[in-house]
Amino acid sequence: MIPSPGAPCAAPDEDDMPRGRRLHSYLGAAGLATLATMGAVAGSGCSGSSADEACVSDEMYFAEQTWSQVLNASCIGCHNPQGIAGNTSLVLKNSSEAGFLSANMEIFKQVATLEQGGESLVLLKPTQKVSHGGGNVIKEGSKEYEILTEMVRRYKEPSACETDTTAFFQGVQLASAPETLRMAALELLGRLPTEAEEKAVDEGGMEALDVILDQYLHEEAFYIRLKEIYGDVFNTDRYLMGEDAMGVIQSNRAMEGYEPRWYNGLQYDEALIEKYGAESWSDLVNTLRRYTVQGVAREPLELVAHVVRNDRPFTEILTADYMLVNPFSAKAYQIEAEFQNEADPTEFVEVKREGYPHSGVISSEMWLARHPTSETNLNRHRSRMVYQAFLGTDILKLAERRLDTSSVADFNPTRNNINCTVCHFNVDPVAGFFQKFGQVGNYNPERQWPETLIPPGFNGQSMVQDDFPTANVWGVQRLAYDPRFALAQIYNVLTGVTGQKQLLAPAPGEDNFENKFQAYLAQYYMFNEIADEFIASDYDIRLVFKALIKSPYFRARNFGGDLTPERQQELSQLTSSRFLTPEQLHRKIWAVSGYPWREGRFGTNYLLSTERYKLLYGGVDHLDVLQRIGEPNGIMANVSDRMANEMSCRSVPRDFSLPQEERLLFPNVDVSFEPQDRNGFDVDPAIDAIKQNIQYLHKRVLGESLDISHPEIERTYQLFLATWQEGVKGMAKAEDDPERISRDLPGDCHVNEEFWTSKPLPEEMRINGDETYTIRAWMAVMTYMLSDYRFLYQ
Asked: What are phi and psi of 609, to 5 degrees?
């Protein structure tokens, strides 16, 4: 059962828990692979809670008893679409399908309410009181029989109990409202909360956070993050590389009349160079090429943002009867469109192509080309991607079993052999949505659907031939309003904001089945509640983001008390400790330090370039590398070390060059604040100011609100002090001593120009030396914090 509420557990005393801060400390015995789990279950935790039998909802009884103990164990082997009982009234959904429990509860109800002689068929059939092809599988009076009897009773007399989606999380320590605010600001916008936002949440708690989240979800930065999340779902950014996007539409040029490389045919014109702000004619052509590729390649993701930005139902990502173009892709498609600024590559407008059956994302040539077909695949790959992205179902898991190839000897086995039909009865009808689209997506209304294949359709409904020319439009009108669509978007957002995949129902007999099933049910019913609210809101995807950010799956921080191994297993997926993606870390570095980690002022961003560290740091290129690495390795640790060193060199001296009131990092100290005098005596006012600034940095860089007497403040101060003492001692050595430390900063750390404009700074703002060694001591502190796992993780 889902654990009942119990007494809260005592939290461990942080003062008694010295922290191994450096990322490298987790490369030891514990291993980086366990760090994500450690974020939720580190230390000690609660023991397993006792079950509350007083009030169990019908949904929970069906899941825990009827499904788990009876149907999944004894019935679904035959009562599935391709099983021996596949043509009966009881055909159950596979556990790999989104929302399968709710669907099966309704399917089972239809049979359970049928009676013969006043007794339910679900009691008569398995006991062989009436003819049952499967024989006598349940004995009257057995535990399984009693479970079925109780379920039949509940169908007749529904319980007033409600499914409790919070009891499972009893004893879990959640991030506070201010902590959640910071996490949400970085996650959604890539920035830190403002002082006004922090004050509002400090005073108003979660209610105030709810209001601020609404604001966040309407900021332009949110749409960038939204496209990033769905970019990992669609992988269409593969076509941002080179001119591959142009190659796709070039192959469709003959039929559609496209002019993909329109920029190559331009005649030299000084006015055009000026209009687009180019430096030369060749620079202009390169700029127009880049803007055109951007417009073509990003069209599916721009559609996602466009739908949300304009407060439309999220189903429109499938049902949109238009496509988007920017001023440059419009020329490639040879489409007339009106723009407010014809030189702005970020302006996208709706257009319709004459004679083309638009169906949102899945009719985009970029999506179609990213998931190509062939003469033998016949759009089945596209069908699989539809199930995965829009129905939350991995269709391949329907047939996760050994296949005896010798048994596949039928004529047309995809229609006639049970080893094949288990997948193909689901895949092929949806593949029929794409019957008029070619290998890379070119539309041809003359293409014919092979009669040897299962007819196009959806959920058992066949498509009539009159709908074949616009089969994709017929399909999305059913896909978008299937209950699984709402759940699929929750899964997509969950992975985006936590890095975690949705839980899958464990198989009977699997190790720790009961514990895994409890964790699965907690998530299943919480997500079903969110899905109901999502649908009721007319598919406002912002509601999904808010619900997940406020949920334990984003906010879980720790547990108190002692955790039994069973409870640890239940909660192993409940963690908000997520290794930041290269894109997220890039934004966080910039937000915290005030500067990006890049080559020079306007050079390559190290974490955003596939030619630098993006792939080495676990990122994706949407071409060959599609899975992000969420568990750091040695290379990634080295990358983070280099980042910490280089960013402390860049940010610390530059921050000290600013007036004190404008500083982001050092508002409480100056370079003259030394902790000891030349006789080695403490300078108490300076020490107090240094510790106050350390306290400030813990909050800004690591998000920790620590008391000035906290052991971590003292540890960081000792690092500052030891570095300063060693530096001062080294600078005092004789000039001919090889161990003498220079009074100059390393060249890359010099500050002589304004960072963004390269404008020379006034002499009094320039920093090239470090006479007191305080700058380098603070650089050591910043390196320490920027390489801390609390900075590298969310």
From this structure: -105, 130
**Counted domains in the chain:** 5
Per residue in 711-736, pLDDT (tens digit) is 999 999 999 999 999 999 999 999 89
Alpha-carbon distance of 779 to 794, in angstroms, equals 23
Total Cβ atoms within 10 A of residue 600: 8
Choose one of 522, 542, 570: the last residue of a domain.
570
Task: For the beta carbon of residue 760, count every other beta carbon within 10 angstroms.
Answer: 11
2 in any annotated domain = no
Q: What is the DSSP letter of 48?
A: P
Can you give the residue range of the structural domain that contains 737? 634-792
State whether 381 and 359 are in the same domain. Answer: no
The secondary structure element, H or E, covering residue 351 is strand 349-351
Query: Would you say residue 212 lies in a domain?
Result: no
User: Residue 615 has which token pair?
Assistant: 């792939």
Helices (H) and strands (E) in the chain, counts: 31, 8
SS3 437: strand
Give the whole-number percent of the chain exceeding pLDDT 70.
88
3-state secondary structure of 782: helix
Band (590; pLDDT cuts 50, 70, 90):
very high
User: What is the DSSP-derived secondary structure letter of residue 610?
Assistant: T
User: Among 221, 202, 294, which Cα is nearest to 588's?
Assistant: 221
d(CA 149, CA 129): 15
Rounded CA separation 290/253 (Å): 20
